[in-house]
Amino acid sequence: MTELTFVGAAGTVTGSKHLVTVDGHHLFVDCGLFQGPRDVEALNLAPLPVPAAEMEAVVITHGHLDHVGYLPRLVRDGYRGPIYCTPATADVMEIVLEDAAHIQSHMHDRGFHHERSHSLAPFFTSEDVSATLRQVKTVALETDFTVCGATVRYHYAGHIVGAAYVDMRAGGRRSIFSGDLGRYDAALLFDPTPLESADTVVCEATYGDREHPPDSLAELRATLLAGIERGGPIIMPTFAVERSQDMLFAIGRLQKMDAQIARLPVHLDSPMAIKVDGVFAKHRDAYRELPETPGAPFGCNNLTLHVTSDQSKQLNHINAPAIVIASSGMATGGRILYHLYRNLENPNATIVFPGYQGQGTLGRIIINGASSVRLFGDQLTVRAAIAHLSGFSAHAGQDELLRWLQTLGSTTAQVYLVHADPPSAQAFAAILKQHGFAATIAQRGMTVTL
Length: 450
Ligand SMILES: [Zn+2]
What we know:
Metallo-beta-lactamase, Chain A
């Protein structure tokens, strides 16, 4: 018998962690951190339903922290089994986990551990990350492997480089775990692989209540032109993984369409994003073929990379139009905080958020229109223009989630909705019912038979 218990990302968008028990053998599909407000982060401290040392395998869908960020803790607590993922995900995961360990120790050393978004720091250390990476076993897409007696296969999911969804066959039943599903017709990534058949689909529903605007490039162009008009720097808090590369590619396309944008200097102030550029270079088969553009990563000209902190400090005194891309994407840490600190009070500056802003993050507070925010102990009055682009999401919108589920060819599968705030999950469950699917919103702690 195969059972599934929803341990995380059930009622929340973070903490993805699905416990699958095949004839008494335990594995996790994803092993992510809860992130966000204090009450959500506190869930990381709750005991697991099965002790770490008794887990036999972990199958990872992709390298985002909310899908892999609990792994170092699991290993520290005694997990010694394999951690399966695709080759590109192994590289992304290494960058993401090392960065997370670094930020936690940095914040802790600087005394920021009492601030809300770092209440858990340091949750794990670089040593825990090194131990975790030694347990990684990579498996290519479309290749069967055996986990706890189940036959598992990865299929391309889009979303970010390396992302895969999990197809698990056990006891004559077939179960799909979407991980995070990407977009159709994305600039860099391929469409998600169609489903064939399934008895159960555990499906993310982050944007179950929304569709994305059709033309994200036009939205970015208008925002950049308004920023140029304003006369100051254009600061972009950007996820280092995937979104930075998406933005370079989009800016590169706009440079060819608009002379004003072509003249704008572009600064990528993120060692992590620069490392992720390297993952793309290494895994050419993981994304669409790009035109060869020597000296212009992802087709973006006029680009300066800032790796060291001295190189980052060169950006301190910019007060003319220039794009500065830095992470973290929700302004919860990293170099972007220094750019925000210097520019939030600058009436000539523009702050552009090209991604999702989680509840309780500084990014969400700013896009919600706060007139002042607290940063590095100072209360700053927000005088910069604030923009939030909604078209660059790495997650499928409502119509795309439905499109993917309809590749099943029938509506007989039982669908469990995860990775969504309750309003999104409820909206998408209603849509699925209209289309004939049996949809259940997963609750944390709920166990079902697959
Ligand atoms: Zn993700």
